[in-house]
Task: structure prediction
Amino acid sequence: MPEYKRSNMLADKPSGYCPGCLHSLATRLISDVITELGQEDNSLNVISVGCSALNILYWSGDFLSVAHGRAPAAATGIKRTNPERLVFAYQGDGDCAAIGLAEIMSAANRGENFTVIFANNQTYGMTGGQMAPTTLIGQKTTTTVYGRDPATTGYPMKMCELISQLEAPRFVARYALNSPKGVREARAGIKKAFEMQLAGEGFTFIELLTNCPTNWKMSPLDTLEYMNTNTIPYFKPGVYKDVTAKEAE
Amino acid sequence: MSEKRFMKGNEAIAEAAVRGGCRFFAGYPITPQNEIPEYLSWRLPEVGGSYVQGESEIASVNMVYGAAAMGTRAMTSSSGPGISLKAEGISYLAAAGLPALIVNISRGGPGLGSIQPAQSDYLQATKALGHGGFHAMVFAPNSAQEAVDIVYDAWEYAERDRNPVLVLMDGCLGNIMEEVELPPMKELSDADLPDWSLTRRNGRDWQGNITPIYTEAILEGLNAMAGEMYKVWEEDDVKVEEFMVDDAEYVIVAYGIASRVSKEAVLTLRAEGYKVGLIRPITVFPFPKKSIRNLDYDRVKAIIDVEMTIPAQMREDIELQVLDRCPVYEYGRSGGVLLDDEGVLEAVRDIVTGGTF
Amino acid sequence: MVNINVSLCKDCRYCVKFCPKQILKTSGERNERGHFYPVMTDADKCISCAICATMCPEGAIEVTKGGEEA
Result:
C-alpha cells in the first residue's frame, strides 16, 4: 500500500509560503526524493532570489544562497570543485527565464552535471505580482493591469522547449503540480534527474508549473483549475528530451 | 622550491595564483588581461583545478562565488568594464563572507574607454567595488615580482577576513615582461579547508548554509563588524614604500606604474639638487594615511599626485591627510596615453622650481 | 491510516478536494496560526492511497499502511 512520511530535510515547522502555494509542494517533492535516494547529507540546494528562495526558511540540508538569476553559475563553481555532491538549483521564472537567461542557457549548453528545478508560476510573487517572462497572454499583473499584451511585452518564455534544443542537456521535462497525477510524475522526474546527475550523466532540467494564489488573487483551489484551463494548454507538460530513452531504444 | 622566470605580468599573476593555492578560475575575455585566463585554462587542469570560460563577467564572478563557498581558493580577473559587471558578485562575496581574489588589469575609461593601459579605476576599487557600502583590501603592485608576492598570499588575507581581495594593476604592468622569482607551490589538503565551507571534505556533519541576505539586526551587526575590520586593516595591513622622503621638500604620491615613472623623476631631480621624495601606496585600501599625515609640513612645500588618469582619483585621499598644510598638485596622462619620464619630470620640475604649473 | 499534523496546515483544501473517498472535511477548528484544518470523517473508508499526502504542499499529512498507529 502507498504510504507517505514527511522528509527530515524539512524542519518541523510550516513553510514560509502562502496557503496553497505550489512552491511548498515542489520543495516537499525535492525533499522526498533526496530522502528516498539517501542523499540528505550530500545534497546542496542552490537558491537565488524570489519566492523560490523562501524554502531556505525550513530547509534542513546544506544550501547556498546566491544572487538573482545566478544559481546555475554558482552551481557550476560548486560542481566543478565538488563533483561528488548532489547539486540542484531551485529557480523561479523571473530568476531562470529573465534575469538569469544567460546563466541557465550557458550552464545547460556546457552540460554541467547538476539539476535545475524551475518553478514557473507566471508571476513575480515576492515583489508583489508583476509580469514575469512566463506570464500568459491576457493575464493581469500589477505591471500589465489590462492583461499581458504581446505587442509590447512579447510572449511567455518556453524554457523546456528552448533548453531541449541544445546538444548537451540529458533530460528536460515539464510537469504540472495541480493534480495527483502531475505531482507523482514530477516526483518521478526529479528522481530520474537526480539519479542521472549522480551517475555523472550531465545537465538535467525540470520545469514545474506552479501557482500563486496571492497574486493571481484566487483561492488555492481556483488556481488549480486556472492552471488546467490556461497554463497547461500553453506550457504543455511532457518529456522534451531524454537521452537515456534514446539509448534504450 | 622557488625558481626564476622571465614572464609577462599577467602570466606571472596566473602562475603565482596557482602556487598560492588557486584551484578555480572563471572569467570572460577582455583586453588587457587576456593572458591570465589563457594561462590558467591549461595550467589549472595540470594541478587538478578547474577553469571555466564564463558566458559573462557576471556569471564568472558567481561561479567564483560557488567555488569559494566550497572552500576552494578561487579567482577571477578582468578590466574596468568587466569589473563593473562583476560588481554585483563582489558585493555578494562580501555579504556572504566568502574569500576570493579579483584582479583588475585596468584600462582607459569611462565606458568601453580604450584597451590601452590607464589607472582609471582607483575610485571604484577603493570606494565602491559594488553596492551596499563595503570594502575589499586593494593591493596595487608596481612590478611583476611584487604582483607575484601579493597574489601568492592573497588568499591568506581573504580567508582571514572572509572577504574578497582585489589586485589593481594596469595594462602596462600586465603586459611588460620582467624577471620574476616564483615561490614554491603551497600544498593544501582537505584539512586546510575552512570550517565554514559547504564541502563535506572537511568532516562537517552539521547543516551548512551561506547566505548574502540577513534580518536587519544581524545585518547591522555584520556592517559594524566590517567597519571594525577596516580599522584593523588600517593599523595592521597598510603596505607602503617611502623613497627619499626623510628630507624631502617635495613629495610625489604615486602607485603602480605611475610610481615607477615617478621614481625615475625623483632620482633625476635629486641629481639636480632638488629634495624630492616618493610615497608609494602598495595597499591603496587601506590607504597609507599615516605616511602622508605625519610628514613634517614645516619642511614639505608641496605634494604632487602623479597618476595615469585625468582627473587624479587618489587626490581626495591625499588631501584628507594633508589638511591644507601644503598645496597638492596633480599630474597625469589619461585615456590610454602612457605617462613618460619626460612628462613627469617636467611637471615635477616646474613645481619644485616655483614654476607656473 | 492518515495522520494530520494540524499545526502545519494552511487550509488550502487540496486534500479535501482530491480525496477519492471524500472522507476529509474542513473542520470548524483553527490551528495556532488561525487556519481551519481538515479532519477525517470516516477512517474505515480510508484506502491509504496517500493522494491527500501527495497534494499537501506542507507535508502535513502522513499516511501509514493499514490501521497501525503512526
